[in-house]
Input
Amino acid sequence: MQPKRNTWQREAVRATLAEAHGFVSAQQLHQSLRDGGSTIGLATVYRNLAGLVETGEADSLQSPEGENLFRSCATQGHHHHLICRSCGDTRELSATVVEEWTQRVGAEHGFSEIEHVVDLFGLCARCRAARSA
Amino acid sequence: MQPKRNTWQREAVRATLAEAHGFVSAQQLHQSLRDGGSTIGLATVYRNLAGLVETGEADSLQSPEGENLFRSCATQGHHHHLICRSCGDTRELSATVVEEWTQRVGAEHGFSEIEHVVDLFGLCARCRAARSA
DNA sequence: CGTTATAGTGATAGCCGTTCTCATTTAGAA
DNA sequence: TTCTAAATGAGAACGGCTATCACTATAACG
Ligand SMILES: [Mn+2]
Ligand SMILES: [Mn+2]
Ligand SMILES: [Zn+2]
Ligand SMILES: [Zn+2]
Output
């Protein structure tokens, strides 16, 4: 395995991702960085986000619209998310019942190498209040 | 609500979708139609697929690669899928435990209007056998 | 230290799935 | 049959993302 060099770009992506409240897109992150005066390129943001996902430092998921979103999660291992589709506020979830269900269903149908992505999108209490105001 | 006209294009999409074994993309469906001698346009395929999804005649989901896939499902109401990522073979699933978990987690965090998409991708027994052969 | 090999960067072109535009066609009511 | 607007389809446009490649700068090495 080739050594990973430490660049200020990667550190900037890491830091800005950590500051974000919820899941953000690569483009949003890039814009935040540029707004903060950085000259980082968009391709570099994509590359470093992919790298952070690979090492497990960041999580990624598809939005319902098909865009890839990223987050620096507190939980280390496999977990799920409850995400406010309005403000992006995110709660990390563990779901033993879902894991078990996945395994059982896969076995029942003779499937292996089951991949499951279970992320919930909803409207948080704060955003619901703001909407009805 | 404006009346829906019956076109041979819509019927062709419906029929070809019904013939497909598993989930297919709009482009795949378009290609199948053209291969069968149809002169239907790609935009029309997209439009009619969207229409069929709206009326519940077809299901749609995102592949892990982000492409939208469509299927004419036997089950009418809300359900989930177990899909072979190699041959596309699809099993329809009901998942009471997942529904309950979704509701409970949403309530616990004060979220409403929870949207959950739970589709499992795996490798079916037949494809697993073929791979090791 | 300075030198150097090369991983990393970034402007930009390209890719691919999807949607939009708009002139033309056609379903279906009258 | 006539008529109107829903539907179509070729192609342009869009948006997210990846590939390209000349250039930069990290960090190993002397
Ligand atoms: Mn899980
Ligand atoms: Mn469900
Ligand atoms: Zn919110
Ligand atoms: Zn299979």
